[in-house]
Amino acid sequence: MELKDIKKVVQMMKENDLTEFLLEDESCTLQMKRGSDNAPQVIAAPQMVAAPSVAPAPAVSAPAAEAAPAAADEGLVEITSPMVGTFYTAPSPDADAFVAVGAEVTADTVVCIVEAMKVMNEIKADVKGTIKKILVDNASPVQFGQPLFLVDPA
Fold first, then answer.
1. Per residue in 106-151, pLDDT tens?
2. Are 136 and 142 in contact (CB under 8 A)?
3. Is residue 56 within 8 Å of 78, Cβ to Cβ?
4. Percentage of residues in the chain with pLDDT exceeding 70?
5. Residue 123 near residue 112, CB atoms below 8 Å
6. CATH number for the domain formed by residue range(s) 77-144
7. 135, 145, 148: which is closest to 53 by C-alpha?
8. Where are the domains of the chain?
9. Phi, psi (5° rounding) for residue 140?
10. Long-range CB contacts (< 8 A, 24+ apart) of 131-137?
């Protein structure tokens, strides 16, 4: 990643009032956090694990759709966005979606793409189960930690 790309991320964080940013790709991991002094802290390290984390992380400016799941969603596991970007359900506009509601997935199943800084990042389920809900529309912007799918691990 080049310095100009990091500067663009810093600018995007300021414009969107984000306090955290995580970008993982094949060559590196970029994690940035802004403290109370509004000075971004850059932590870059070689990527050690290819799979994004399933654990939800707090999103600073997440939409209201991220509110606590309804009682019907209890027991379902969220697949969250590991980065800020644009959510795509398929590898190209003419291709079929990676998954649909009712699809069986494993930890290695690619469920979507999140495009960040013109890099298409395949997002894996990281959980075995059945897709119960797709929470984001195709080609919509997503935030770091925003739930994308609900999976029934049963």
1. 999 999 999 998 899 999 999 999 999 999 999 999 999 999 999 9
2. yes
3. yes
4. 76
5. yes
6. 2.40.50.100
7. 145
8. 3-33, 77-144
9. -95, 150
10. 131/99, 131/100, 131/101, 131/102, 131/103, 131/105, 132/73, 132/76, 132/101, 133/73, 133/76, 133/101, 134/89, 134/99, 134/100, 134/101, 135/65, 136/87, 137/87
